[in-house]
Design goal:
Elements (H helix, E strand, L loop, with lengths): L21 H4 L2 H13 L5 H4 L7 H17 L4 H13 L12 E2 L4 E2 L6 H18 L2 H18 E4 L2 E4 L10 H18 L4 H14 L18 H18 L2 H17 L17 E2 H13 L5 H17 L11 E3 L2 E3 L4 H19 L5 H12 L1
Antiparallel strand pairs: 1-2, 3-4, 5-6, 6-7
Helix pairs in contact: 4-5, 4-6, 4-14, 5-6, 6-7, 6-8, 7-8, 8-9, 8-10, 10-11, 10-12, 10-15, 12-13, 12-14, 13-14
């Protein structure tokens, strides 16, 4: 297995480039153009742009989740969990976590170091999993700090509707972020005797918006109406934790309907993961790895999910993993395989997915799902 802390690059890291002129970085359109050119080019533009290798908090978080899941399955080296935990905590700030590079999307801009919900949830989740397998109170406290940050720093009322924001710099409703945030906070509150009500109220804003839709939009508004595989998986992931933590019928019903639609629309007969519904390309490692992770953890909810996770895993190993090194490839499309390897985008998420699948194969749930299911059984 690759060193989880080894530096590398990311498909979205272009604005770290020391050779990008200041005037480019001052323009939203130019920032987005540079990011997209770097992301889409099969050539490694990092040296040209002046982007030095680095290690990301989200990479460490996914590897920590993988280590915690392996430790729960077969206790062997709890020291590895603690080492990754200490490194991850050192990269946060009072429970909040961020990307290490400026990000410009079609709907928002946020600079390096600006805390965002996605990184914070993956970090908080990993620390929560680590606390459950080590019994270390300080790790649980760190997970609680992340949940507290979401509640105090990112939860807002948008037109009278509560929701978790992607960053404090925007009020756009991003459904997958809202549901992931709500699911994580609800899980932490459920396992620590807290109040799940505020997180459930935030989740219901997205539940009401998505109910009855065949394809779930990325966010609220015409410019955010697209739907893709891994963001849909994030929706389902958040809903699954909400269902386990609260038993809310609306979350359970939407999870069931969304899971059926996702499994039908976003995968081929051999388990190939479509990036967009019904399209046979490109095949992206992040969509594949996220699918394995979420499907494996939903196996106890729907046995068909586990069978699909196995097919996606086999297809991914055959098509998007270097057989010699085990490193992931970025994408496969009509022009062949883009063999660039990005630690966060591919390797880290695949490590977490493989660990979840190993747990499912053994008939055991991952740490948080197991703890929530045990709590639900005693309610």
């Amino acid at each position: 297995m690759a060193d989880p802390l080894a530096p590398g690059h990311d498909p979205y890291d272009a604005l770290l480039g020391t050779r990008i002129p200041a005037w480019v970085k001052r323009s939203a359109r130019m920032r987005q153009a540079v990011i997209q050119i770097r992301k889409r080019s099969r050539l490694d533009l990092a040296p040209v742009l002046g982007v030095a290798p680095f290690t990301m908090a989200k990479t460490v978080a996914c590897h920590l989740s993988a280590a915690a899941r392996r430790e729960a399955l077969d206790p062997a080296d709890v020291g590895a969990v603690r080492r990754l935990s200490a490194d991850l905590v050192s990269r946060g700030r009072h429970g909040a976590y961020a990307y290490e590079f400026d990000v410009q999307t079609r709907w928002s801009y946020y600079p390096a170091g600006e805390p965002n919900l996605i990184v914070t949830v993956f970090a908080g989740r990993a620390l929560l999993e680590a606390s459950l397998v080590t019994g270390d109170a300080w790790l649980l406290a760190e997970a609680q700090a992340s949940a507290d940050f979401l509640d105090t720093g990112l939860r807002s009322e948008r037109a009278g509707r509560p929701a978790y924001r992607y960053t404090a710099l925007t009020d756009r409703l991003i459904h997958n972020a809202n549901l992931l945030g709500a699911g994580f906070v609800a899980a932490v509150r459920a396992l620590t005797g807290g109040d799940e009500g505020p997180s459930l109220a935030a989740a219901r804003t997205s539940v009401e918006a998505l109910r009855g839709l065949d394809a779930w939009p990325y966010g609220d508004g015409a410019s955010l109406g697209w739907s893709d595989s891994f963001h849909t998986a994030y929706d389902l992931d958040g809903l699954s934790w909400l269902a386990l933590a609260t038993g809310d019928p609306g979350c359970v019903a939407l999870l069931d309907a969304g899971l059926r639609a996702w499994c039908t629309e976003f995968f081929g007969k051999d388990g190939e993961p479509f990036y967009y519904a019904g399209r046979k390309g490109p095949f992206d490692i992040h969509a594949a790895a996220t699918a394995i992770d979420v499907l494996a953890r939903l196996g106890s909810h729907d046995p068909g999910s586990l069978e699909l996770a196995e097919r996606v895993s086999a297809w991914t190993d055959a098509n998007l993993v270097d057989p010699a090194t085990g490193a992931t490839y970025y994408r496969k499309g009509r022009l062949g395989v883009d063999r660039r390897s990005f630690p966060r985008w591919g390797d880290a998420h695949l490590a977490a997915g493989r660990a979840a699948l190993a747990s499912a194969r053994s008939g055991r749930a991952c740490p948080v799902e197991a703890a929530l299911a045990e709590r639900a059984g005693t309610r």
